[in-house]
Amino acid sequence: MPNRLPAAGLSAKNKGYFAAIALTLLAACTHDKEARQRPDATAAAPAAGSTKVKLSQLNVFVDMSGGMQGFVHPVAAGATGSGFQQTVTELLSAVNAQKATQPAYYFFKESTPADARLLVPSTYAAMRSTVSGGLKNAARGSELPQMLSEALKLQAKKPGTVSLLISDFIFAPKDKGQTWDVKTFIKDALNEVEPAKLAVSVFANTSDYRGNFYPGNRTGPQKLNGEQVPYYIWVLGDPALVAQADAGLLRKLASQPQAHYNVDFAPAYAVLDYLDPTGSWMVPTPDAPGEAPRVVFTKKPTAGQPAEAVIGLNLSTLPPSQASQASLKTLHLTAHDAAPATLARVWPLAQEPAAKAQPALTKYTHFARLRFAGAPATRATLRLEMVRPAAAWIAGYSTNSDSNLKAQGPKTFHLREVLAGVDEYFANEPSAQRLFSLPVEVETRR
After folding, report:
1. Comparing C-alpha atoms, which of 154, 140, 144, 265 is closest to residue 201?
2. CA-closest candidate to residue 257, choices 321, 307, 172
3. What's the superkingdom here (predicted)?
4. CB count, 10 Å around CB of 146?
5. pLDDT per residue over 62-105, tens digit each?
6. Which of 53, 149, 163, 207 could disulfide-pair with 83, CB 3.0 to 4.6 Å?
7. Is 180 within 8 Å of 243 (Cβ atoms)?
8. Where are any strands of DSSP class E within 330-445?
């Protein structure tokens, strides 16, 4: 301020007068920069619009068919269990620790005249003992579509349920002539639920296998002695709940091959009005938790004088394969016609020079700069979206003949067709085609 009269030379009345002027000018000068002086005020928040659904129950299903005995065999004293036994017992322990979710445990088996049940209720202790100690009374297995259908029917009885299905997931219908139609079988099974209300994650793994392996193409058993054979953990449930389970319960499997269908990962994000902004705009405090962040222009940008804003993204909860450099290249804006904007640049935290001086930035893993060449007449919504990457590993795990795994290596009969059925089930669901969609409201103050 230009007035530098010493306070001692002012009367109490004049002091109050000049103080009032100073405060008024200060407020006018900082009106649209208020939040920029308070970096911590712009905190990373969950993706707006994604309702926080509560995970209330976990249902765990383990295939107890004879084909699983090679994974689940007795272990001699001092020996180590198979890779399957180690991974699954650890997962069961993690599920059991989720006391608030009321875990429930079931074995899959084939329905027979003597016992029509497809699901055999169990307990944590009994299931853990069976997996770690070996299947002693293996049954004929349920067919894959039946397993999916039964799990979905059961979880529909209690909203907030996520199901974990553990099996080799070999599609081997009783009628071999129906094998070609596997995609239809899978789609029909998933149709227990509307696509918008369902998400599927598939985690692949391999384990040493000891005993008779029963090929899906029915060419007769093959004796294996420690060769690697694939098995899978499928996660079914509400899109937001499956994302929670993937990021928490199944986080230890993050390095495994995986595929995700309609999973609502919803990474935390925020508009960072303190990071190198250009133009005249502000970010008002949200009226309620979960609201999309707003960019309010106090002066309308133009093509000659564009405005720029940076969005901070925390992609740490995404599976590594989904947040790869290749996936980041698919990041794009939608609905930009409503508010002329372009995505100018995307870069990781390691390339942000201001990170050392501004610790608030370290809550983000990536940044995206938006450039505005105009502003909407009324409030509009932009969306920052990432395309769901294709799971390239599926082709390498799939085979049309699994009769000689010793020579082939770890393969699963018709896996590509099985997962193509899942893909086709979600084909008309827009949210399944993207990894996330983050809204940003844009408006001009009049």
Report:
1. 265
2. 321
3. Bacteria
4. 16
5. 998 888 999 998 888 878 899 999 999 999 999 999 878 889 99
6. 207
7. no
8. 332-334, 341-348, 366-372, 380-387, 398-399, 412-413, 434-444
* Predicted local confidence at residue 125, as pLDDT: 96
Residue ranges of the chain with per-residue pLDDT less than 50: 1-41, 49-50
Q: At 387, list the tokens.
A: 């395309």
Query: Contact 226/82 with Cβ under 8 angstroms?
Result: no
Give the pairing of strands 57-63 and 380-387: unpaired
Query: In angstroms, what CA-CA distances link 419 with 232, 383, 394, 423?
Result: 12, 29, 8, 6
CA dist 253 → 232, 235, 243 (Å): 11, 12, 14
**Tokens 């049309």 sit at which residue?**
400
Cα maximum dimension of the chain? 104
Structure tokens at 200: 């599927």
- CA 271 to chain CA centroid, nearest Å: 22
Phi-psi label, residue 314: left if phi above 0, alpha if psi -120 to 50, beta otherwise: beta
